[in-house]
Amino acid sequence: MAFEKLWRLSNEKKSRLILAVDEDRALENIEDLLKEVGSLVVGVKLGFPAAFNLGFSRIKDVISDRRDEFYFLADFKLADIPYIVNLTLLKLKDIGFDGATVHIFQRGLEEALVGNVPEAIGIAAMSHNSPLLDREFIDSLNYAKKVGIRGLVVGALKEDLIAEGKRRGFTIFSPGIGVQGGKFAQAIKAGADFEIVGRAITKAEDPREVVENVVKAQREALKI
Ligand code: XMP
Fold first, then answer.
1. CA dist 151 to 3, 29, 103, 118, 134, Å?
2. Handedness of CA 61, 64, 69, 74 (dihedral sign)
3. Which residues form ligand 1's pocket by a CB distance below 6 Å?
4. For the structural domain made of 4-222, what CATH number should be given?
5. pLDDT in tens, 70-87
6. Model confidence, pTM
């Protein structure tokens, strides 16, 4: 089953929330933050801001301390030649990441997604205006299916694209909630499986309170 760990945690916590930790202040206190929101957050997304701030060795420690509690998603939106994408994915797996985002438009993923690599999540559409990705959307989905990608990132504001991705059987991950304009649970209502939220939580006075509000809205939308 695709994203088995993520779904197990999601069912246990009755939550579809993945927390993106990009802000310096949140990263500097990441252990406390994860402790505070752990019972309601199912995944933690880390990308370049985390790598610059914490370094990969501390990221490895954070993951190893909490690997049973969260699904760790590496968000580097990889788009290099297949050999380098594969090498990078192998390293991300070594660090402990469960999943990793990859671009689709550059192709070559049949060679990149081999060996013991994290579960790949393809960048299908972004929440800001990204005409190239939007134009390529259907071709990208056809290709993603062919190379065995089971999850897609589709921005929360692109509700018709969320629905199309879902109709084709992908697990949909939607950022763009909060600061970028999406309402809590908006993407879930459009058919997304998980919502990725960053600044609305990490920059809040009381991150736990925002997390509670996001999950409450998700539970109401899903009737769980
Ligand atoms: P916020 O705005 O909540 O962003 O701080 C949270 C995280 O989500 C990522 N992000 C996106 N990634 N397509 C993507 O692939 C998108 O449309 C998109 N919008 C936000 C961003 O990297 C940040 O970590």
1. 8, 30, 12, 12, 17
2. positive
3. 20, 22, 45, 47, 75, 123, 126-127, 153, 155, 175-176, 178-180, 196-200
4. 3.20.20.70
5. 999 999 999 999 999 999
6. 0.98
Sequence-ordered list of residues with C-beta below 8 angstroms from that of 78, at least 6 positions apart, any chain: 85, 88, 89, 100, 101, 102, 103, 112
Q: Give the whole-angstrom CA distance, residue 41 versus residue 70.
A: 7
Count of C-beta atoms within a 10 Å radius of residue 6: 24
**What is the C-alpha separation between 135 and 127, in angstroms, rounded?**
14
% pLDDT > 90, the chain: 94
- Measured distance CA(168)–CA(124) in Å, rounded: 13
Query: Given CA atoms 8, 193, 166, 222 in this order, what sign does their dihedral have?
Result: positive
Q: Whose CA is nearest to atom 3 of ligand 1?
A: 198
Domain boundaries, the chain: 4-222
